[in-house]
Amino acid sequence: MRKRYGGQTALDGLTLRAEQGEILALLGPNGAGKTTFLEILEGLRAADAGEVAVLGHDPGTPAGRAYVQEHIGVSLQTTALFDTLTVAETLDLFGAFYKERESTSALLDRIGLADRAGARVGQLSGGQRQRVAIALALVNRPSVVFLDEPTTGLDPGARRYVWESVRQIAAEGRTIILTTHYMEEATYLSRHVAIIDRGRLVAEGTPEGIVGDLRLGVNVFAGPGSLDLTGMDAAGVGVATVERSDDGWRIRAERAEPVVEWIFGHARAAGIEIGRLEVERATLEDAFLHLTGRGLE
Amino acid sequence: MKALGALVVANLKLWVRNRQTLVWSLVFPLLMMVLLGLFFGHQASGATDIAVAGTGPAAAGLTEALRHVPNFVVHVLDRSRAIADLKNGSVTMALVVSGRAPVHVAIWQSAANASVNGQVALVVQQVANQIQAQATHAPNMFAFSSHSISGHATSYIDFLVPGIVAMELMSNGLFSGLAMVTYREQGILRRIRVTPVPTLTFLLARIIVQLVVLAAQVVITLGVAVIFFQYAPAGGAAAAALAMLIGALAFIATGFFVAGVARTADAASAIANLINLPMMFLGGVFFPTSGFGGAFGFLIRIVPLGYLSAALRVTLSNGQGFGSIAGDLAVLLVTLAVATGLAARFFRWESQPA
Fold first, then answer.
1. Which of B134, B149, B164 is the endpoint of a domain?
2. What is the ipTM of this complex?
3. B143 and B228 both lie in a single domain
């Protein structure tokens, strides 16, 4: 798919395929082209070039778009709803737009807001509004669900609730395509992650697969900062980088053991007590940094 | 159909629950009417309209002289039209001029205007005397006779009520696009756009709700006028209803056009006001505009609201039918067609171009 806005390239030959029943997570920083990609699939925008098929229909044609929109569920990036309608009225309204629909009471039970059915949408918390947005995406019993940054701006509790909802939707056999710039969200929810940057696909696979393929190894964090580890990269323990941070050191290496042993030896010789020592496998965040030279957020 | 019904119901709820709009659109016009009605309600409407029928130099001279009287608006008509206009309250007095040496001036007055008849007749006779004084060689130039008919009174409230109704239709129509801009800014329109609801269904629901709301406003306004100001609609209900419908649609379409051009709700509000305020003052809502000429007169003639308020006045207050407002309806239909074209051309779902 290709798409430009004026002089800016939003999608630069991005090719992706989601299988039925899987959760495809599009991971990338703001402005990577994730939303544009979803909007083309949803029939909101037209691609400049490329082939698009959702459930076998092209949302770029009027007939294809009608079919696609009847069978997909959508939660847009900003959850804007009519503030003075109640939760139940909102679900009823959107339900009336489709040939097939889920009952309002079933949806309310599903999102745990049965007791708030009569509350106006404007009175809900951010997390509750997002639950309503997810219920709206399911109002027509869709085969494919698009969730554009479903947890952005939510507190950890609300985020966790959304994650469980997403897993439940997928367990029912629906295909989910979601965008996120949270690495842990992609890792937790998806076995099929696509890392996107500047409209291009930079990596695709399972979270472990992407990190493993890049041979990023481990991150080791050691402190206190008075421990001098500058000579470490020349010590032959397989270190890629050694960086000083606020409260210590961050070392990227192939394996953890030789690095940890070297730090212990070095600290003992210098008579400094080790205050902090953490080992962490490389993450999608590291993969993104490695692939693009920039952070995710 | 299911989607249209649901959208109509939802939009009605949204309208009723929006206190600000509710108060502004219902209370403001009523307040205007009550205030103006209390102060000026039973006075005659601002200008004095005089019909002159007759040909020849004497009729022309009298017409010209009367035009110089402050507050007099002179209409040259044929005899039957002049009497008809007197009967329906469009003019305060009809002068039928005939013969020469002496020139016979039949002063036709309506019993409904009893309070001002004497005064107006006196002014007419004074004007005639002045003409006579300038032409000293013809001592008995004018002979007067007086005729009376029963007719419809034209107090200020008769003038004001149709104007207020027209203003309501215009203001609410113009501002009807505002909600669309807000919904567009908030992304609600995009959310609806990813559903299978056709654009036309969505817009149709908005228009239907707007018409229902306007109908309620018109009924309330007329009800208050009848109960508290003894306003007596003279008939012409069907013709008035048609004029209201076409007028309302024309202004709703204009409101949708404004919504299409404006980027933000604030901008839409400013543009709508830019159209609303001049129209309110040039459209003959609060005072008669028939006497103005020149550039001001030209502006008055191109303002669509003037045609709606005129049509409502002729039908509601003067009891005339379709025939008398054909010209006004034609202007409103043209406005509707142009505004619809512009609204369709500039309609957009997104704040940003796709």
1. B149
2. 0.82
3. no
